[in-house]
Amino acid sequence: MAGRAQPSGPAGSGAPGLLPLLLLLLSAAAIIPRGDGQNLVTEDVTVVEGDVATISCRVKNSDDSVIQLLNPNRQTIYFRDFRPLKDSRFQLVNFSNSELRVSLTNVSVSDEGRYFCQLYTDPPQEIYTTITVLVPPRNLVIDIEKETAVEGEEIELNCTAMASRPATTIRWFKGNKELTGKSEVERWSDMYTVTSQLLLKVGREDDGVPVICLVDHPAVKDLQTQRYLEVMYKPQVRVSQNYPLQGLTREGEPLELTCTAFGKPQPTDMRWLRVDDEMPQHVVVSGSNLLISNLNKTDNGTYRCEASNAVGKSHADYMLFVYDTTATTEPAVHGFTQLPNSAEELDYGDLSDSRAGEEGAIRSVDHAVVGGVVAVVVFAMLCLLIILGRYFARHKGTYFTHEAKGADDAADADTAIINAEGGQNNSEEKKEYFI
Fold first, then answer.
1. d(CA 129, CA 58)
2. Looking at the whole model, is its pTM more than 0.90?
3. Parallel, antiparallel, or unpaired: how do β-strands 220-228 and 289-292 relate?
4. Residue 159 near residue 198 (C-beta atoms within 8 A)
5. Residues linked to residue 78 through DSSP beta bridges, in sequence order
6. Burial of 322 (0-12, 13-18, 19+ CB in 10 A)
7. CA angle, 162 as apex, 160 and 165 as ends, to 5°?
8. Tens digit of pLDDT for each residue in 119-147?
9. 252: closest CA among 310, 200, 327, 164?
């Protein structure tokens, strides 16, 4: 091979047998204390188990000195372009006076360590490169405490990533939302096993949602596993009015209601009843439908649809008010859906349609009452102002006269008139004062 050192001596003299002795001497020279390595350059190598690692020993300023590569046990892997070590996984990639590049295939954890580049100068130079082997998790498993949970329960999930190097980081997701788990790390020899625990309180909205265990590790990307939640929940019940579609529930007209219920498992028991009273005899119940063919005011009341499954029971109420045939206003009371046991379980979407008429009727009645009260108050205030005006116009002051001045001491009325100041003779001088 070009560039290989050729032994000296006559042809056929057995001189090639000197090569092992020469390699032995060079290996012994490796014991010489390392130099500063100023003329040698190399880099550390990180590789995933099973992949290929490439080691490069380079000389900055080549002077045709011999380059040698040794393993962590200081065995010579390559001396120039010759491989004394009988390990076929090491292959020469490039050899020149300035570089020795060697590849190592099918890397395992046992290959990890320091590899030495040596340059035979005076004094000899040495520098080392470190091979780090990454091992991805060999298995990723999610274990669920209960395959099927009931709404409101707290379940435990465990995700285990086995035999990795270094230890993995485990992240949890429910759908697109990241959750927080608690991890424990165990070390076995040079490998790590990580287990993460997640406590999750489930509701009906979690049924069919995936729970994902995702691994963060430098040796692998997008490694994850998932399990779908299965949550059982009690029925959701809704009552809808089929006829009349809009308007009033009047005497003599028909009424048809339909009850729908959804749950897991699907409700198997559904029934109609009248709250706080017996069901009228003329009411026809057929499965989820309730029909009153001829309404009258004795039908007024609350009609309830109940549905149940293995988890529990729920109901929805319809409040009926029957109007006269001449009624033109919107009904004040309609049916609405209500889930029991908790106000938070009310289906406000179901309430919106059934209570729209009620709110409109209440608003119209309130406006009429307020208008009447305002009119009465205004009329009363106008009447009061008129009365007060007439009173003040007729009583503008108090009048005092002096006609009887001096009559207080008279013995009788005639004498009083005669003795009055001015008497009748001075009547033309009477004066009137306004105070």
1. 12
2. no
3. unpaired
4. yes
5. 69
6. buried
7. 125
8. 988 888 999 999 999 999 988 999 998 88
9. 327
